[in-house]
Write a structure and sequence with these properties.
26% strand, globular, 3 domains, Rossmann fold, 8 helices, Dna Ligase, domain 1, 13 strands, 4-stranded parallel β-sheet, 289 residues
């Protein structure tokens, strides 16, 4: 059996993962999967033919250390998925700015660091929005993500400004259609479309992650939406083993990118029969490429 490590974290308590559904399809493809925390010390990465970044859902708390671990894996001669240059780029949400500059539809954003309350309040006019969402430039699982309306006043802006003292952040207009239509997530394995889900927040919330009570359901996207997902993959500088394209519908009706997840996206194998097998087959093709 060839050996593959699924990179994870020390403790997944409170998270929902179905990566175990891929273990048997990998075995059938000739691969033995071992879950290894990225925080583990003295790992012989060279003992694995492939390391697939999976449920490293705390990497944003120490992104520098995380990237140094990936550099060690990459330097060991083991095949890292996704490729290290792509992970470095995707770890900072400024990648959205790069994709927009390439002419792709991306939810508008403004960028800043160490704001004062006045800077936070200025983003309403900059974005032409009555409500905005503010999040760190490096984040995961909606960590330190805030929804703010003009009506909330300067006190709330001051609280948020304090959270981002000494930190980079981004602000986007709040996409209201998320509340009823949700976010569409399209999954691509080895560049080929696999499946899709729709994620909607629980009542009185705006976050779509399961950890925050979001509802996940299978979704059959129209061909045009799959084609849009392919456009984002075609804009990348490196091929991907896996990618999740998160799309939302703006007020005007057009779809735009909320996130392009290339590091540790939930892959929702349980929502799509055969998807775990497609993932295993994509790894075989990836390694034989």
């Amino acid at each position: 059996m060839r050996r593959c490590a699924f990179l994870t974290t020390d403790n997944l308590e409170g998270y929902i993962s179905d990566d175990e559904l891929a273990v048997e399809p990998f075995r059938e493809s000739g691969w033995a999967v071992t879950a290894v925390s990225w925080r583990s010390r003295d790992v012989d990465w060279g003992g694995f033919e492939a390391v697939v970044i999976r449920t490293t859902w705390d990497y944003h708390l120490d992104a520098g250390a995380f990237l140094r671990v990936l550099e060690g894996i990459d330097g060991s001669g083991t095949r890292l998925a996704n490729p290290l240059p792509l992970v470095r780029w995707n770890a900072r949400k400024t990648y959205l700015r790069d994709l927009a500059a390439r002419g792709l539809p991306v939810v508008p954003a403004v960028w800043g660091a160490s704001p004062d309350p006045a800077a936070i309040e200025s983003h309403f006019d900059e974005l032409g929005a009555e409500e905005i969402v503010i999040k760190p430039v490096i984040s995961a699982t909606a960590y330190d993500t805030f929804r703010l309306g003009r009506r909330h006043g300067s006190d709330r802006a001051a609280e948020i400004a304090a959270v981002f003292a000494g930190r980079e952040y981004m602000a986007q207009p709040f996409v209201a259609k998320i509340l009823d239509e949700g976010e569409r997530s399209l999954f691509f394995f080895g560049g080929e479309y696999s499946h899709a889900v729709r994620k909607t927040p629980k009542p009185e919330d705006f976050r779509v992650q399961e950890e925050h009570g979001g509802l996940i359901e299978a979704f059959q996207p129209p061909a045009g939406l799959v084609a849009l997902g392919r456009r984002f993959l075609a804009a990348l500088d490196h091929p991907t083993l896996y990618a999740r394209v998160d799309l939302v519908r703006l007020a005007a009706g057009d779809y735009a990118l909320m996130e392009l997840e290339l590091i540790e996206p939930s892959l929702y194998f349980r929502m799509a029969p055969g998807s775990a097998h497609r993932f295993a087959q994509a790894l075989v093709a990836w390694m034989d490429r």
